[in-house]
Every structure is written in structure tokens, then in C-alpha cells.
Design brief:
Blueprint: E1 6-8, E2 11-13, E3 20-23, E4 28-31, E5 36-39, E6 47-50, E7 52-53, E8 56-57, E9 59-60, E10 67-68, E11 75-78, E12 83-86, E13 91-94, E14 101-104, E15 114-116, E16 119-121, E17 128-131, E18 136-139, E19 144-147, E20 155-158, E21 160-163, E22 166-169
Antiparallel strand pairs: 1-2, 3-4, 5-6, 7-8, 9-10, 11-12, 13-14, 15-16, 17-18, 19-20, 21-22
Amino acid sequence: NGQAYFLQNSQCILTCPNGTYGELSNNTCEPCATGCNTCFGPTLLDCYSCKQAGSTKYYLIYGTDTCNLTCPAGQYQNSTAFQCRLCSANCLTCINSSTICTSCGFAPSGTLLFLQNNTCTATCAPGRYRNATNNNCSACHPACLTCNDNTTNYCFSCTNTTSGNTTTEYYLYIGDT
């Protein structure tokens, strides 16, 4: 009938148990690599699913049969399923969830995005500017409500600051930044 039997604990079986695979060269059930929960071969490149081995967690890289200690950029570690899962389309990298971004790149539409409060956005909140050096929404100078960088030389609009009982008012020169 074309089926192979494998020797496991002095018994011939059709399917090897989890943690082992059927080795056709000698028809025995052989152990998966450390970190593989289920596998079809002897290495970490031959895994169907991953597991924790001692205190070390292995993650199945999305779209592959590979268990690894870390996930590649664009994927995050799901510690309960021991899988790498995809970040949302707006995140270049993420952590713990597809929508908790740690860095930004381009949106699917091609718009450059900037990191603000673990979210990638095309526009930054008041008091922040789009910093193209690190793709973050960085803080303006305290005198600026809107700005182009974090110095007082590039404010588009000004704000007031309060320190203790003292309020400092800032004013924008007409035609200047």
C-alpha cells in the first residue's frame, strides 16, 4: 500500500509522535531539533511549530519552516503560540502586537510615516515635528507650537510655557520663523 512504518519504543507505527519525525533512511522516529515542537526533519529549518526549550523560546518565522530565537524586521514574537506574526502595514518594526510600532517606514500608499506614541503617522501632533533623521515625531522647542525642528529658529507658531508661577509668552515675528 506504499505506507512507511517507523520504529518507536519497539512498536511499528504509521505516524511518529510530536517531537519526533519519521526518518526514512532507517524507518525510525528521530527527535526534532531543540526548539521544534513538531517537525519533518532534524534541523531548526524543518519545523512545523516551535516551543520553549528550558528558558529559551523559539519562534516559527512567518512563512517559513524555521524556528529561531528572534523574529525578523516586520514581524513580532507571539510568546503563547511561539510564532512570528506580521506587523501592520504601517509599521517597519513592531513589538508584542501588530500595531505597537517601534519604527516606521513608508505606508502602502508611499507616504513617509513617523513614529509617535508607538503609532506610525503622516502628521505629528502639535508641539512635535516630522524628524526625517530617525522617522520619529520629535519634540519642538518648548516655545514652538508647530515647528520644523527643535530650535527656536524654526517655529511656525508659538505657545506659552509655565514653570511654577511664571508664565513665559512667546511671539512669532511676522514673516519669520
